[in-house]
Amino acid sequence: MTDRTTYVSLAGVRRRGWTDAMVRELLGTPDVQGRDPRRWSLAPVRLYLLARVETVERTPEFAETAALCRARASAAGIHAERRRAAVLAAIRAEPIEVPRLPRPELEQRAVRHRHLLGARSPGPDPAAAQGGTPAGALVRWQVSYLRHALSRYESLLDGLYGEAGRGEAERLLRRRLYEAIAAAYPSLARECHRRIAVER
Question: Are 123 and 185 in contact (CB under 8 A)?
Fold first, then answer.
């Protein structure tokens, strides 16, 4: 038999399989609420009599509501999975158009972009693209500039919110963008492949 003065927190009720909607619908107002004077947190304390929670758990309404919540969660999961698959398919199918620039212009734009980002380092001013910048840095800057120029493709990720699904889609999109840059500018291919490897 449960002690009639034993309480369970909202987190404890959730651990028993309740959702917040079920708590609102079936339990309503907490039996005890307020601030815990022993804590600095401003979050309210919400406690439910364990005996009341157990009584509700034995009702047909609880079983029906729990089944309905599981069905909703399953439907939401199916919808999210379909959306993830559709976004991944769109990313795979989307043609990536990399701007084709003469090498001196690409170098100038890359240096200017680097300076606009506030990463000022000893090197050329934007008008003289290569005078004093190490070749490796210039290659990295060109890839970064082109990657930035392709940022419009990130709209393909719209509507993906789940951590796992969105992360997978972002990695696929970055890989496709770097592969497109490498194909358009073979001299930048090594840096593009390095970035793909780092992000795996």
Answer: no
DSSP, collapsed to helix, strand or coil, labels residue 45 as strand
Distance (Å, rounded) from C-alpha 69 to C-alpha 179? 43
Report pTM: 0.58
Which tokens sit at 101? Answer: 């620039």
Strand (E) or helix (H) holding 46: strand 45-49
Residue-wise pLDDT for 150-197, tens only, equals: 999 888 888 666 555 788 888 999 999 999 999 999 999 999 999 999
DSSP 50-91: HHHHHHHHTSHHHHHHHHHHHHHHHHHHHHHHHHHHHHHHHH
Q: Token pair of 144, please? A: 């970064």
Count how many Cα atoms sit within 13 Å of the Cα of residue 55 in the half-sphere of its side chain.
9
Q: Which residues contact 64 (CB under 8 A, 6 or more apart)?
A: none
